[in-house]
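Just wondering, can you check both lines?
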Amino acid sequence: MLEYLASLPGALCLALIWSIMAIGVFITFKVLNVADLTVDGSFATGGIVCVVVMAHGGHFALALLLGFLAGLLCGLVTGLLYTCLGIPPILAGILTQLALWSINLKIAGGKANLAINARLTPVLVSQLNIYNSLWILAIILVAVAGLLYLFFGTELGASIRATGNNPHMSKAQGINTKFNIVLGLMISNGLVALSGALLAQYQGFADINMGRGAIVIGLCAVVIGTAIFSKVSPNFLVRLLSVGAGSLIYYIVYQTVVFIGLDTDLLKMLAAVIVALFLGIPYLQKTIVPRVKKWKKNKELLKEGSNV
């Protein structure tokens, strides 16, 4: 038990890092109502750009900024493929993700893995100092959520939310929906890349495959967070923070599963099952629950009729 408790701070650090990525997924999945699969590529892009910048003597803050900007470009490409060429958003994201694998490899100088020495190179967060990293990451998460809350409260931010809610009505009201979709995808992938950059600093290396399966983790956090905390408050800030809470829950479950000795090869499947269950529950509530109630009501009526 003590070993399990000792492992939780590290799991919480990872959860906070992935929370930022999950907020990016939330923007496309819930705000824009667009399925974007660029995430697996842009996450790795942020991490690799961060490590390359730091390996060449750049400051860790500059590395994070450039990683974020690289993510913006990834979202821009996906957005232009979708809005200008009419490619479905899922396919546009897949195409961008596919291209990013080669681009990331070139950025890394043809190497699949790049490392930085956290003992010699100053970093913002590191697994060598978990407790210090924990509160820094918590501040970053709250700051990101706060800035997004302020942005989506502006006229431009509200128009992005309106575009995702009802694109046809928004277009009829004179809103440039194509611009909003592109901007939303850019913000989303910028946050995803920032998360990848933070993870690269935290673990001390970046890998071109580090974003594989990131969309599943992001969806887990979004679905779990919104399912559990959706009735707490409709406030947009609460919804953003609920995504972070969903990521924390996911990683605590993840750490528990690892601790009890479940085969780690099954963890990705477990994540997919969790997402499927949380996505399917609302549908089952709308279809099966009314049928069960109707069946019980008919059973009671037949019972009353037989008594008469």
